[in-house]
Task: inverse folding
C-alpha cells in the first residue's frame, strides 16, 4: 500500500500529531442525554474535519463505559443528589489513598444507547476506541488512567499506544472540557507529549467556570488554542 505523502512529510519534520476525541457519547449530548453538556453536539463538524486530516498519525476515541453500580452515580448512594453531593473514592489496594469525587446522574452505562458514540461522529476514521471508567470502585475522567497512584487501579494503555506510534504532539477535543478533557490533557502532558486543547472542539459542564478552568489547564503546561491558531493550522499544512 502506498504511503500517504502528507503523513510522510509530517514524520520527516519530527511532527507526529495524534487526535484524541473524548467521550462524544449520546448521554453527554442534547437533546436526550442524561448528562447533556450544553451545545455538546455542535462540536461534531469540527471534530470530523480534524479526523479527516492526513497529517494525523493516530486517531483515538474514548468512551465512558460504566457498570450500573459505578461509584460516581448518585443513585448508588442513599439520599445523594447528582451535581451537588460527593463521594469518597478509596484505593481498593491501599485504604490510605483516597479522594473526593462529584456525583452524577446515571450515564454511559456499558452497552446501552446512552453510551454509544453519536452517529454523526465520523467514527470510522478512529484507529481505536478506548473504554474508561469500567471499574465500579473508581472514578476515571482521564483517557489514560485513574488518579490513584499507590498503586494505580486502572490504566488503558493509551500512553503506550501513543509511544508505539511515535507521537510527539497530542490534540484533544470532545466532552466535557472541565472534566474528562481536562484530565486527559493534563496526563498527556505529564507523559511527555506536547499537548493542546482545541478550544472550539470542546464544551464544559460548568459554563461559568470554564475560563478559570482553562487557566488551570494552561498552568499544568497544556496549551488551550483556537482552531485558527498556528498550532492547529499546522495540522492542515
Result:
Amino acid at each position: 500500500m502506498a504511503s500517504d505523502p502528507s503523513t510522510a512529510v509530517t514524520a520527516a519534520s519530527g511532527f507526529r500529531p495524534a487526535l484524541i476525541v473524548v467521550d462524544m457519547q449520546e448521554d453527554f449530548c442534547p437533546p436526550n442525554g442524561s448528562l447533556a453538556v450544553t451545545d455538546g453536539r455542535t462540536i461534531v463538524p469540527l471534530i470530523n474535519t480534524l479526523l479527516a486530516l492526513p497529517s494525523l498519525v493516530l486517531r483515538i476515541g474514548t468512551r465512558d463505559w460504566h457498570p450500573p453500580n459505578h461509584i460516581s452515580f448518585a443513585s448508588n448512594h442513599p439520599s445523594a443528589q447528582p451535581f451537588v453531593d460527593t463521594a469518597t473514592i478509596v484505593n481498593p489496594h491501599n485504604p490510605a489513598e483516597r479522594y473526593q469525587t462529584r456525583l452524577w446522574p446515571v450515564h454511559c452505562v456499558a452497552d446501552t444507547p446512552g453510551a454509544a458514540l453519536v452517529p454523526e461522529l465520523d467514527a470510522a476514521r478512529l484507529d481505536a476506541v478506548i473504554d474508561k471508567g469500567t471499574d465500579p470502585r473508581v472514578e476515571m475522567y482521564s483517557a489514560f488512567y485513574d488518579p490513584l497512584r499507590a498503586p494505580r487501579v486502572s490504566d488503558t494503555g493509551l500512553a503506550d499506544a501513543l509511544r508505539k506510534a511515535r507521537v510527539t504532539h497530542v490534540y484533544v477535543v470532545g466532552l466535557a472540557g472541565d472534566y474528562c478533557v481536562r484530565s486527559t490533557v493534563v496526563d498527556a502532558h505529564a507523559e511527555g507529549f506536547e499537548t493542546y486543547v482545541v478550544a472550539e472542539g470542546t464544551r464544559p459542564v460548568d459554563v461559568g467556570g470554564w475560563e478559570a478552568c482553562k487557566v488551570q489547564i494552561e498552568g499544568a503546561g497544556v496549551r488551550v488554542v483556537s482552531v485558527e491558531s498556528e498550532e492547529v493550522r499546522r495540522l492542515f499544512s
Summary: Confidence is low (pLDDT under 50) at residues 1-9. The helical segments are 5-12, 44-51, 158-164, 180-190, 210-219, 230-236.
